[in-house]
Amino acid sequence: MNQRQITVLKFGGSSVxxxxxxxxxxxxxxxxxxxxxxxxxxxxxxxxxxDELLAKAKAISxxxxxxxxxxxxxxxxxxxMALLALAIRERGLxxxxxxxxxxxxxxxxxxxxxxxxxxxxxRVEDELEQGRVVIVAGYQGVSYRRDxxxxxxxxxxxxxxxxxxxxxxxSCEIYSDVEGVFTADPRLVKDAKKIDALGYAEMQELATSxxxxxxxxxxxxxxxxxxxxxxxxxxxxxxxxxxxKDAPKAEGPVRGIAHEREIAVLEAxxxxxxxxxxxxxxxRALEAHPRQLNFGDAxxxxxxxxxxxxxxxxxxxAAEAELGPGSLVRGRGTISxxxxxxxxxxxxxxxxxxxxxxxxxxxxxxxxxxxxxxLVVPSEAVESFVPALHEAFELGRTGPESA
Length: 403
What we know:
The two termini are 37 Å apart. With 403 residues, the protein is an alpha/beta fold. 50% of the residues are buried. It folds into 2 domains: 6-177, Carbamate kinase; 256-392, VC0802-like, CATH 3.30.2130.10. It has 11 helices and 20 strands. It has helices spanning 19-34, 49-60, 66-89, 122-129, 155-166, 200-208, 216-225, 273-285, 312-323, 347-359, 382-392; strands spanning 6-11, 38-43, 95-98, 105-107, 116-119, 133-137, 140-143, 148-150, 171-176, 181-182, 194-195, 197-198, 229-233, 241-243, 256-268, 291-296, 299-305, 328-338, 365-368, 372-378. The strands form 4 sheets. Strands 3-6-2-1-9-13-14-12 form an 8-stranded mixed β-sheet, with helices on both faces. The protein has a 6-stranded antiparallel β-sheet with strand order 16-17-15-18-20-19, sandwiched between helices. Strands 5-4-7-8 form a 4-stranded mixed β-sheet.
């Protein structure tokens, strides 16, 4: 095998959005190769390509067949990989682009939300042995049925981590258009602070709750295999954020705040257990995965991320059949406070509810875990309430970064 140490670099859609940015990425990759590394690069589709392809499909079909949707959406990453290979070749290095299936990424047969079950990187290793830079199409693989599959939103991160594990890489660097992971979305909160280091569990909760910097499944993959992840900005000298085992604890109860402007809520009162069971069975068949489930004397409620609404008409039909008319509610968002052991003490929840009262933000519901407190609020309240919570927990304070 190649004696060079292997590093895996992943570049998001904004980093490869046009020719100028692709050329900048080619410079970064070339520099890494000249430092002595064997380089594997994972790329996302350019800019808004995936959304544009999805819109094309929905212009043809209200509920596109998921197998055909995977065939369509996987084209975006293939465009990026080929263009980057050409750009790297222009700099005098040998480069080869490979699809997910050519790279040996074997997945489940669950279209649009497939999971990686095995990586057989023989072709990647062969190309590295020849001294080539290998560019892999992220977000995709091949099922045991030999169908093209996609891994869901942010799946290119998972591709990168899975390859890093299979290749025994020394590092996995995730590049995007932000410097790293912040205490809140810096587009909403001007004094949001970059976090230098995070543990896997906190990062996974942030990602699950709406932080777009890293994919939750990728973080789980990295945790299982003990791979340190680096979240960095393309073209920046800033070291970014490292996600690793045994990261230092935060000074206060809240490490960071994540949000989703738009979610779907399933809710109803006076619901029988058998109706809930039937609903969850139907949602599972539709590959819609509800979270923040609540069921009791007050009724039933569950949150669905918009990524789970590829088949919204069918989800709506299932909800109304089991819960009644009007049970699928839109126009709501979530704000989540993330921190290790955050629900051990009621003080963080009380602080959040007091901040909501001051901001006159209605709270429809609350759910908690050992790392998270989530508030369901009106969608229009999210952008103003995030900064209010950031201030309430003093996350913008100056001084050494506690992470």
